[in-house]
Structures are given as structure tokens and as C-alpha cells.
TrEMBL record, chain A:
One of its GO terms (molecular function) is 2 iron, 2 sulfur cluster binding. This is (2Fe-2S)-binding protein. Keywords: 2Fe-2S, Iron, Iron-sulfur, Metal-binding, Oxidoreductase. It holds the Pfam family Fer2_2.
TrEMBL record, chain B:
PROSITE patterns: TAT. It comes from Flavobacterium pectinovorum. This is Isoquinoline 1-oxidoreductase, beta subunit. PANTHER family: ALDEHYDE DEHYDROGENASE (PTHR47495:SF2). GO terms for molecular function: oxidoreductase activity. Residues 211-297 form the Aldehyde oxidase/xanthine dehydrogenase a/b hammerhead domain.
TrEMBL record, chain C:
InterPro entries: Multihaem_cyt_sf. It comes from the Bacteria. This is Cytochrome c domain-containing protein.
Amino acid sequence: MIQLTVNGKTENLDVSPEMPLLWAIRDTLGLTGTKFGCGVAQCGACVVHLNGEAVRSCVTKMSRAEGKNVVTIEGLSENNDHPAQKAWQEIDVPQCGYCHSGQIMSAAVLLRENPNPTDQDIDDAMAGNICRCGTYPRIRKAIQLASQMQEKSRI
Amino acid sequence: MTKNNNVDTTRRNFLKLTGLGGAALCLGFYFPADGVPTLVRPSELSESDIELCPWIIINPSGKVTIVNHRAEMGQGSYHSVPQIVAEELEVDMKDINVIFAIGNEKKYGGQVTGGSSTIRSSYKNLLKLSATAREMLIAAAAAKWNVSVADCYAESGHVIHKPSGKKAHYGELAVAASKLSAPKEPKLKKISEYKLIRKPLKRIDTPLKTNGSLIFGLDKRIPGMLFASVERDPRYFGKVKSFDASKALKVPGVKRVFKVNMGYYEYIREGVAVIADSTWAALEGRKALKVEWDTSSFKHWSTPEIFETQNKLLKTQEGMPLKTQGNPTEILSKKTKKLDVVYQTPYQSHVAMEPINCIAHYKKDSIEIWGPIQAPGWIQDDISKQFKIDKEKVIVNMTFLGGGFGRKAMIDYPSEAVGISKILGGPVQVVWTREDDATLGPFRPGISYRCEGTIADGKIEALKFRMAGQNNDHWRGGSKTEPNRSTSEGFLKPYYESIKNLSISDVLFETTIPTSFWRSVYASTNGFAYESFIDEMAYEAGKDPMKFRREHLQEERCQKLIDKMEEVSGWKNRSKNEGFGVAITECFNSTVGHVVKVSKNLHGGVKIDKVWAVMDCGWYVNPDIIHAQVEGSIVMGLGAATTHQITFKDNVVEQHNFYDYPLPRINEIPPIEVYIIDNEEDAGGVGEPGLPPFAPALTNAIFDLTGKRIRTLPFKLSEV
Amino acid sequence: MIQKGTNSKLMSTKTKIILIAVILVSTIGLAFTVSMHRITEKEYIGITPIKKDSVASVAAFKQVYKVLMSPRCLNCHPKGDIPLQGDNSVVHTMQPKRGKDGKGVYAMKCANCHQPENSPGLQTPPGNPEWHLPPADMKMVFEGKTAHELAKQLVNPELNGHKDLEKLIAHADDGLVKAGWNPGKGRTVPPLTHAQFKKAWITWLQTGAYAPAK
């Protein structure tokens, strides 16, 4: 049994410590919002927060996740209203949408650590997430908008 | 248990309308489990529900459900089809429910989501049937209230009697309306009257894509479903000589290992499937599997040989003419001053973000399939033949697609999944790894083009294009004695008017490497060769390349497109040391022009400063979706031009995953501006036509800046 | 970039003091290096070597240099702020940035992909619990350095992470250094074994840490 917290809930999973966190999340817990894209930490579709960091769950073994706090896209906010989610909706960022769970999870870490990111900061944070549909110009706009929304909500 | 589409017709409450080009409109009603919009499929309706109509379902509570008959892979059909219907039906987008149709081409007409065809092939029909439904609902209300139809109007899902203010929602009128006869010529709105169409409405599927709730093929789960990973021949058509499953079967969770076949049109591709109780177990089991292949029965190609052969053929063969006018060959043979060059484009993989996957359940009397599917009808045809079952008993459910780009219009992966389910006797999801997805094809074919031309009086006197590349149709049994019908794809038709001596021919070239559609298909490669060569001819003629195109494209829409391109890019005011390139291509009835500006990079090579795109797609639905599609096409075109290529060694792909088939990332994307030409012409495609002009506009810009003509893709921006 | 300008205006007094301190230390370090350079080309560390032997020392460093310039060491000691990767030492895909502490930035921290151990398979991220680049204030660049330059840098406490001889010797057994010899499938190991490297390293240091002429 491997114990970890997923989206605020304690889970005891009877899986191999070698199993990537991605497959435990998707197949064992049935949380399919986290995506399989490449399996080798190249595309970022599988990004989840592990103790707050944007890890690639396809290469993160259960042994590393044990005892830690995992947040997936389903748990990022209760009402689909994290500033990144709201900005993604406002700008209509997604096309197919497959990569955007990972994009949003990466953007959330950026916005937490740097509430006013520059274009360079966005590049530095987001270059690990591939989008085949090519929504990058809108991802950039949405992060800028999320930053403004975040700032407004603080005032 | 899931119900199929063979619902007992006696329980249907529908009315067939005539005069709608074969498509029937049925006003029916059904009762969703709860009042909130949910994503359901017709085949998931419960026993008490009544099976409905092709596109519009009205519930007694007033809830309107609109059926999207096409695949949603990012291009926006899930939003655009309802946006059309809602306009003429007079319902609000926020109040509607949208569901995917299952494969049923008798009911919906063509459902193959390819060729950027969803809107252009169905908008007229959708407008008319929606207006028909609206008029019938109004008529039902007028009859109910015993008032004049002329005094009633529809708005936001209600019919309103203007003089009295009486109001009824569509749910109260649907049953009565369904018993009326349909008006033959319902009154359609003028473009200027549209409230929804041509407005940049926010996509209704976006919120589902920001919280992980949207179900792609890979996310679909069926009770009792197992998972499969398949080791397939990396040379495509080898036979399993032997396999050793002993280690694979020891992997915890692995249930069975067996040989499977995958139908690829008229061919069979063999594989060994590892079945397990989780995706990971199936993948681990497969790693432990050993398979020996017999690949002795077909030729193995390597990339250098492919292009050398194409070049040799282009030197010696005239090919099969698709288009000939005047006598370009004779003119070219007499002239000493002429251009004669070869362009080359690489094989490409699709690598949609969602790797190929498919769920199949082979039952005794039916076969049900769920997955990211672009072409449900083709799958029904193929499975019906392969497994000897009536087409109607092959139920194909389209999930959302995590990208398609043509790959998911193939019939191979569902065929394999059904084969596995049949052996297994239960539902199974076959999961392709990224490596499977990138390396096993089919690919966009790598093509060489010989382009020859002469100039007289500052204009093109003779032009001759020959293409040597694989014809995708051959895999589907297409004739080898006729030219590839797509040889001219991408090339603007108005050139046929101005270039009196012109020929476009296809030189037969074949390999054992499977090829198929890739976003914008042959326009993506033709466009590079043809529009680069037009640029070469412009310089040969000593003309500004934009002006040269303007002179050769004497057609009103082209002239307006060029006006717009010049205006937005500041073409005429560009300074001499700036690199500006232009290219215009036609694809799926839309014309798109790009202007690219490049400059020298301080660290060597060139960088792209800006891209301007102008799209003329005629009648359109949602300008924001068009912007998004063109932006995305440019990003995809950037990767195809500058970073990725599939190469082969003895028929085996040398790339594997994103580390050696790198896609553009956010830090590599230039600023992009997109403009739409407003007119009332017939609708053209949107999802693909934005891609082909990018590569030639870029390389033409590089020539403008550096004098270096790039004729082979891909090339590295840093090494120019 | 605009952001950075704004930040500097808003710089707290505390930050200013730290900045001044850093500048002072750097200047002192530079002065120290320069003065040492003037006095002698040979000694850089204030600890008496066991036995001075310039010939043996330079010979040992040449071995050390081969290892340090191998992709396994070089890739994480780049000139710029982006690590290199692969046996051909190309700029790391997706261009992860060093960050202040050398552990990456935002959603691109090293450990987001690089696990405590090598990931299984070819072309997967190699791993180590300490995976990082040198920090921003002590970049310890190897890329592009001659043997002479690198030897001098390695024994200069202001450029080597404030390591004295003892710490330098101990560094041969550092977990991340040793990870170079367990690089994950498909990557070449340095040209010497770890034992050979360690021996050459210590020999170089203990015979006077002489820098080769070039």
C-alpha cells in the first residue's frame, strides 16, 4: 500500500512503487484529466503538482509520491475558477484541449511564484509544455490576463 | 447496457421533412437524466427515451440539444455546428446541449472530418433545416393560440405572439410542430441579420478543457475493459516469425499475449498484443516481450535512396499530366535562359498530442467502437467487410479527439482493436505509445518537385511542374495509371488564366512505407514548391514578388487578398535591408496569403519577426475560431518547415519521440496577426488552408534577406 | 525585462546590503586572484600540498580535464544559463533556466523531470536526488575553458564555491559528481573510471594544483 494525498483526499493505493504516478492517477484513481503524451518528460501533458511543484507524472514513480501531496487539474480549483482557468476560458485558449491540463498546471506554478511574469518568464516557465495545435500565442495572452485577474482579486 | 442506433422505429416520434437534400429533420423529444447540460451520446439514451432526429432534439422542458455530426479535434465543429443551428432555430448558445452523433451516414450525410469540410459541406443544409424547425414551431404556436403566423416570432427558444405578448417555449410546441408539414422554402436570414454567425462567440467546449472533465478517447472507460499495448513490425508489413511471451506474462497485471492483425486498407499489418488490467502493466509487459519478424517479402527503403530515386525519375520521366495547356515543354526546350530546379519536402508524422488509441467491444451480434475517430463511416465500412457483419451493426462512437490532423481518419487502429476484442471476448482499449504513434505511420509522403519556367516580357511564359512522391490513394486501391489528383492542390487556379503554357504532372513513385493525409494534405508540400518557384520567377523577371503575383492573379478575390496583405504587412513601405516574403495558396476552397518578416539573428542564422496571415474562406461562422486555426496552422507549419522530418533506415523510422522529432515550443513562436476577408462567397475550409503558405513565405523572406534560396525542407533557422 | 527594472527601483535596503556585500566579495576575490597571479602561477590554495611536483600535478590535471570536459560534467557547467544535454552537448531541449539556486525556475525546475534516480529506458531523464546546476552567483563554468583556465578556476575559492583543499578533495565523492558514472541508458561515461578520476584529482591537488600552461 502506498499512501498519498490526491486533491485533498488521502488515498491508499495497492500499486507498485515503480509505477509512474500518471498511471496511478489515471487508471487506479480514474482521474483522467491528467494526460499521457510522451512518457519521457518531453511534452508536459502529464504535469501535476507534487508538494506544489509541477512534476511530470509520467516519469515520477509512486515511490517518490509516497506521503506527498498531489494536486491534479481536477483539484486545482473547486469551480474551474483558478485565475489560469478563468483566463484560459476568457481567451479561448484550447483547440483540441489535450495538452491544456498540463499547460494550466504549469502556468499555476508560474503565477504563484511570479505573480507578474514577463514574456521571458512565460517562456522560461512554459517551454516544457508542447501544444501540437499551436495555441502558444493564446497561452501567453491568458497567462498575462490571469496575472491581472490575480492582482485584482488581491486588492 | 448501451443501446445502439437500431432503435425500434415504432417508438420514434418523428416527422420526416422533404426537400432537404436527403437529410431528414425530425423533431422529437427526450428526457435527460437531469436538467443540466451533460455530454451524452444518442446511444446512451435510456429505454424510455425516444430516438430523435439528425441535428435537433427538443425536450418537453424546452431544453434544446444539437447534434454535432462531425469529429471535434480542436478545429471547432462542436461549437460551429451548433452556432449555425442556433442562429436559424433562434435559441441561445448558453441554453443548448451538444452531443456527438454516432456514425450514421444515412442520417447525417458524410461524417468524414477531413478536407476542412464540416462547415462548407453542411452549412446550407444546417441553416435550412434549422429555419424549417423554427417555422414549424411558430406555426404550432399560432395554431395553438389561434392567431396569425405573421404575428408570431421566435426568440431565445420561445415563440412569442407579438400583439398579446403570449409566450411558449419550444418544449411546449415540439410535439405539435412535429405533426405539421414542413415549409418547402423557409425564410433564411441575410448575413447582415445574423446574431450569432460571424460573431466571435466563446467556444462552448472550452470550460470542459480547463478542468480535466472532457473525455478524450484515451479517457473513455467501459465496464470490464482491459488494456492492450501492441508490438508491431517497425517495417510495417513484416510477419510475426515467432514471439516469446514468457517474461511478459510474468509482469504483474498482464493477462494474455497473442498475435493480432491490423487491417490497413487492402493490407494486413501484424502485431503481438499484450493484454493487462492497466495501461502501465500492458506497457511493461510489452517491454518484456520478444518478437522476431520476417520482413523478407518487401523492399526496405532508406531516406537517401528515396530522394535519389525521385530525383532520377524527375530527370528522365514526363509523368502523367493532370493539367496541360499550351506547350510548355516545347518552349522550355527552345529557351536557354530558364529556371530548372528541384524542391524537396520530407516525410512527416502527425503526432497529435493524444496518441492513437481505440476501445472496441466485439459482441455476438454487434461491434461497438469508441475512440478519437475522424471517419466513423469509413470504419463502419471497413469493419463490416473485415468482420463480416452488417454495417448498421458496427456502432462507432466519436469521443473528443486530442488532435487528429488526418491520422485519426485512418481505419487501421479500430480494425486492430476489434480484432483484439474478438480474441479476448470483451471490451479492450488499445493504447499506442508516443513512439508507436510517431514511427508506425502512415506519414505525410516525402516529395520532390521539378519546377521549370521561362519569363517573357516580365511575365511567366511557360511553367512546368512535375511531382515525384507517393500517392496516398494507392494505399486505398487507387489507380496507378492516372495522376495523383492532388498534384495541383495548393496552386491558385487564377494562374491558369495568366500562364498560357503550363503543365502539372505526377511521376509515379512508390515505396513500401504507408502514407496518408496530413493537415492540408498535398497543399502542404506542393505549396512550398510552387509558391517558392513563383518567387524565383518573380526575381527572374526583376519584379517585386507581391506585384508579380498581383499581375498573374487577375481575379477579384485574389486582388482583394493581395490588397489586404499589402495593407496589414506594410509591404510597400518595407525597407531594403528587411527580409519580407510572401506566399499565397489555395486549399479546400479557401485562399490564404502569408507575409513573413525575418531578420538576422545576433547569434547567427535568422529569426522570424512577424507573420501576417490573410484568409479568404468565404462564408464563415466564428471569426475567433478562424483566427485560432490560422495561428495553429502557422505553428504547425513552422515545425514542419524548420525542425521535424521523418527519415528511414531500411524502412525503420530513425526518430522516436519529441526529443528527436521536436515540435515548436512557446519560446520559438513569432508574433502572428490574422485577418479575415469579409465576403458572401460560398464557404471554404478553415482548419487546414492556413498551413501551406507558411513555409514558402518564410523561405521567400529568407531569400529576400540573404539571397539564399532554400529548396529543401526542413532547414534550421539558426544555420541559414 | 521591464519587470526587472521595476524591481530594482523597489529594491529593499536588505537586498541592497546583500548586493553590496556580493559586489565587495567579488571584487576582493578578483583582486586576490589578480595579486596571486602576479606573485606566482603555481599556488592557489592556502594549504600546503603534501609534495609539490609541477610535472606530476600538470599531468594529473590533464587527466582530470578530460573528465571535466566530458559531456557528463560539462553539460551542467554551461557558459549560459541553460544546461546542455546529450553526448553532443547541445542546448537542453525546452531550454530550462538555471534559476537563482541552480535548481530551475517555476514549472521548469530540474527535479520536475529529473527524478531521484535515472528513469528507465533510452532518452529518459537521468536522475539524482541533488540534480542541479551551479547557482547563479557561482556559475563554475566549464564550457569553453582551457585546461589552464579551468585549473585556475577550480582552486579559486571565489570561483569554486568557496571550497578549500579539503572540500575540493571531498568533492570527488559528491553524489552528483559520481552520478556522471551512472548516466542512464545510452549515455557515455567519462573517459576515466571514477577511481582513476579521483586519484588524478587528488594527485593534482596534493602536488600543488599546478595549472597547465594552456
